[in-house]
Amino acid sequence: MKKIISNVLLALCVSGCGESNTKKPLPYPVPVLPVIEAPTYKGEYINFESGPVRPIAQLKEQGLLLVTNTSNNRIEVYKQVENGGLEFEGFINVGLEPVAVAVYNNKAWVVNHLSDSVSVINMQSKPWHVERTLLVGDEPRDIVFAQGKLFVSTAHRGQHRFSQQITAKEGVGARDLTQGGVGRADIWVFDSQNLGNELGGTPEKIVNLFGDTPRALTVSKDEQHVYAGILNSGNQTSTVHENVMCHGFEDDEYGGYPCQVMDKIISPNGLESGYLPGGRTAPGVNAFGEPQPWTSMIVKYNQNNGQWQDSAGRNFSNGVRFNLPDLDVFKIDVDSMAVQDSYAHVGTTLFNMAINPVNNALYVSNTEANNAVRFEGKGEFTGSTVRGKLAQSQISVIDLSTKSVKPRHLNRHIDYADIKNQKEAKAHSLSTPLQMQVDSKGKSIYLAAMGSNKVAVIPTHMMDSDSYWDNVGEEFTPSLASQNYIDVSGGPAGLLLDESNDALYVYTRFDNSIVHVGTNNNLEKQRIALYNSEPEFIVEGRPFMYDAQATSSNGESSCASCHIFSDTDHLSWNLGDPDNKNTRNSLPFPTENISELGCTLVGPQDESCQLLSIINGDGDKRTFASMKGPMMTQTLRGMQNHGHMHWRGDRSVGYFGVDTDNTLSEKVSFKNFIVAFEGLLGLDIELASSVSSNNKPDEIIKLEEDVDKLADFSLALALGPNPVRALDNSLTTSAQTGARFFHGQRRSDGLATDVDINGASVDGVNCEGCHGVDHAKGFYGTRGEVAHGGEINILKVPQLRNLYTRVGMYGLPDREGFLPSHTKEHQGDQVRGFGFLHDGGTDQLVNFLRGGVFDNGEQGCPHGADEKNGCVFNQGKVGIPSEEVREGLVDYLMEFDNDLAPVVGQQITLSKNSPEDAEARVNLFYERAKTPFVSKLLGGITSECELIATGMINDKQRGYFMKSSDGVFQSDKQADPQLSLSEIIELAKEQNNTLTFTCAVPGKGWRSSVDSNLNGVLNYDEV
Predict the structure, then answer these.
(1) Which helix (H) or strand (E) holds 698?
(2) Roughly how many angstroms between the first and final C-alpha of the chain, as a whole number?
(3) For residue 165, which phi and psi values (nearest 5 degrees)?
(4) What stretch of H or E contains 678?
């Protein structure tokens, strides 16, 4: 009977079982089943692209392998058979975007990245089911166990972090979104034997780490210590704000001599009397002699002399008002749950960690960013380019006894001086190094290199010993080491070594498969495709984001080198190209006349008019300067409805076209990034002048096709729900104050009333006048237009949905045109070197909102300020009227509207033993699922979420979908009566029953709960 059921499962592939998603004919007739149509859904497919962290776990006692199926919100279970082979056994629905799984006490513990939860699965007997859901901080990533304690890494935010039920626990509390010197990384610790009676479990403690967002965890062999790595750890680079810099460039008449910072404050190791050494690093013109803008400038901390220096080695310390200790890995004592030690300068972006069980060395896979080097392109005019050397792939070795940190560059064979002649080197390169495991004898590291389609097998003694890295005698040589690398196609992102079966199991992200490799010969023995509901264009486009073998000449650089899992590395890069000419900006500029008001109404002596004379470098508001200055890496998530790409919208001009008609096509603009494959990644290719050129070689046509696929993949990416805004989608009192001003009648910039001299032109706007908000059109801060906000570059108006991710840089000198900075005194240690605005040069939003363009024209200058602070910029009833409103704006921006409601992804498990307030949480979900919500991404008018319930009822795996039209629940068996909310709650609370309620993304709930393959036959009926 068991074999028959197994064959039915394999044939129908209800859960994506078996070796492909193709249905196979049954060996016996199957009765015709009733068909029921899924609810109508008008939205497009949404991809969150959550990065796998620990995707495979082994339940040795039962001979089971568990794999996270991230895009399909489930754990798939495979039985290990003879010689380590795998057979599909079943699946368990968990939360949204599972990225890590661990096994402890016959239970599987699953980290749900988008649901901010941990699913606790009872694996002792079938049907396996989620028996408890733990609620944790925002975007959890990894999970480990030590001495019976559970450790989960999360960002320092999330609605549950401030829950009233757990306020008594250490580490729980304030948002800290405007507080400096605060760690932005949290580790939630639970007692695995006593999860607590509070809603979502009771943490023993939330351990705060002085870093920006954690990712990887690992445990010492004796379980005395847990080690936590910071994903966005930085590399001691920052920016000197453009208004703090001296005028001009070091090679022109303005910037060739020192100047004094406005507040005259001396930072540690700064020049005497608050001086800066001069203007921006040369040159001030491009190769064609065209003047370039006076932007901010990237500086890097020199550990030898304690100075913040530019790329020419000049001391700009007085322009930076904080320290970056660059703490990357933290040692947590398991008994006391306290940070016992930390390790600095491990890498810029830290992925995964592993401990050698023999010598206790700690290995950290990471990349080291090269953003202190200026410019992309050939580098002929300046001799400087970062092309092909974006982020070096490393394993850093930490000697826990001596605290020494030794980064080992895995691609030391690459000749970066000859970046486009590295085809032979490519075969030995490793890119995007993710999960590692050390064998039981401590002799080999197995490393999943996602961007190389390889699993590297590296001798540990070569990592541990300096003698292989001193350029003397026998060395670590990639061309030799690569002979032991295992080819695993499909983007290997996670692995598990089973030495008892001579098996290595690899999770591949590109094709969503589990691959069995025999370690006796390093050959692939079996590949099983996990069930995948992703449309074909997502699967086809994903590799071009990560695959450095396909997108660079040296096999190290890819789009994902900076856009970490299609997101951001939280760094600024100066990627202008001095070898190119300036181009023209044709984007819509509805507030252009507001920029001219100073010239029109006051005259050429007006400060704002004088700024226009050097705007964009040449004084032309329609120039795209070829040397644009530092720009923060933008997330690739949420680009669908926001116009042209880049901070300036300068990809409106490019290889696939110039948008002179202002169509604001996101796809054409994204495809114009094709030039980055040659000019930035270093692909050995010579592009034609445009897509319409004749007689293009096949390799160019192939690249054009690949970029088209990458564009489709990228434009389906979405930002997750806001973790600061309340789950009922309400604003805090302060944020309401900010929202009223943002959308209100009072103008924040320009004139209080229009003047006749400009005709029908609008001469002033409120915040929304530039930062458009229209849910039906997909606008969340921008309509694709450009505006002049008092900066040296005319910029595209940015979207405002993820500003909460930028918190952590505190310290900013006084600047001309801004009210005095409250953080101008040195602020000590901070966790980030880049903050807000296009270049990351502003530490807090409140300091941006103190700019002269937002001056309250009714009040004049406050005490301690004068005209140079921009406090006489406006006249009449215009500008931010009070500090209360200014702070309210900051809070509103942190809680800003989004394509998805805050409740999306949230969960709770209900059973007979659930806490009393679990029902209240289900009721909250129920109300939000009935609440109308407008989102173009979701297809227009929908609801805030789709409420589903999955779990075990009467010893059967069951699913239920709430129909928003009448609020009743449809089960996965068509003949079942529909249930009211009270009925399904009572059903979940019956003896031995359990249901996990999840607020699914609108449009995805039906598939996740009652009809996995959308064939019209409900799951229970089909099985």
Answers:
(1) helix 698-714
(2) 14
(3) -70, -20
(4) helix 675-679
* pLDDT, position 30: 55
Nearest alpha-carbon partner for 727 in 911, 1009, 929: 929
Q: Which of 647, 611, 576, 639 is nearest to 839 (CA)?
A: 647
Task: Report DSSP state, residue 554.
Answer: S
User: Other C-beta atoms within 10 Å of 60: how many?
Assistant: 11
User: Residue by residue, what is the 3-state secondary structure of 335-388?
Assistant: CCCEEEEEEECCCCEEEEEEECCCCCCEEEEEEEECCCCCCCCCCCCCCCCCCC
Both tokens of 662, joined, read 């202002």
Q: How far is it, in rounded angstroms, from Cα 230 to Cα 63?
A: 33
Report how far residue 431's alpha carbon sits from residue 718's, in angstroms, rounded to the nearest whole number. 25
Structure confidence at residue 954 (pLDDT): 96
pTM over 0.85: yes
Name 253's Cβ contacts closer than 8 Å, sequence gap at least 6.
none
**HEC secondary structure over 751-796:** CCCCCHHHCCCCCEECHHHHCCEEHHHCEECCCCCEECCCCCCCEE
Specify the length of the chain in residues.
Answer: 1023
Please give the structure tokens belonging to residue 457. 């097998």
Supply the DSSP string of 221-260, one letter for each residue.
Answer: TTSSEEEEEESB---SEEEE-TTTSPSSBTTSTTTSS-EE
Contact 878, 857 (CB under 8 A): yes
**Of all helices (H) and strands (E), which one includes residue 740?**
helix 733-742
For 922-948, the three-class secondary structure string (H helix, E strand, C coil) is HHHHHHHHHCEEEECCCCEEEECCEEE
Give me the amino acid identity at 642.
H
Distance CA 767, CA 851 (A): 14
pLDDT at residue 475, as a whole number: 97
CA 112, CA 473: separation in Å to the nearest integer? 48
C-alpha distance from residue 696 to each of 376, 551, 670, 689, 705 (Å) = 24, 18, 21, 10, 13
Residue 18 pLDDT: 39
pLDDT given for residue 933 in this prediction: 97
Interatomic CA distance for residues 50 and 565, integer angstroms: 7
Which pLDDT value is given to residue 3? 34
d(CA 282, CA 836): 25
Residue 100 bridge partners (DSSP): 54, 111
**Which residues have a Cβ under 8 Å from the Cβ of 531 and sit 6 or more positions away?**
13, 15, 16, 17, 21, 69, 72, 74, 76, 91, 1012
DSSP state, 1010?
T
| Burial degree of 317 (CB within 10 A; 0-12, 13-18, 19+) | buried
pLDDT average per 10 residues of sequence, the chain (1023 residues): 34 38 50 78 93 97 97 97 96 98 97 98 95 98 98 97 87 86 97 95 97 97 98 98 97 95 98 98 98 98 97 98 98 98 98 97 98 97 97 98 96 94 91 98 98 98 98 96 98 98 98 97 97 96 97 97 98 98 96 90 87 95 97 97 95 94 94 97 94 95 97 98 98 98 96 87 94 97 94 96 97 96 97 98 96 90 88 88 97 98 98 93 98 97 98 97 95 96 98 97 96 93 85
DSSP 284-300: SB-TT--B-----EEEE
d(CA 406, CA 400): 12
Q: Residue 111: is it exposed, middle or buried by C-beta count within 10 angstroms (0-12/13-18/19+)? A: buried
For 818-939, strand residue ranges (E) read 907-911, 932-935
Between the alpha carbon of residue 753 and those of residues 530, 600, 744, 789, 867, the distances in Å are: 61, 15, 15, 19, 23
Per-residue model confidence as pLDDT tens digits over 79-117: 999 999 999 999 999 999 999 999 999 999 999 999 999
Residue type, 181: G
690: CB partners within 8 A, 6+ apart: 655, 656, 657
Query: In terms of Cα–Cα distance, which of 528, 422, 399 is closest to 86?
Result: 528
Which of 846, 935, 880, 873 lies closest to 740 in space, CA to CA?
880
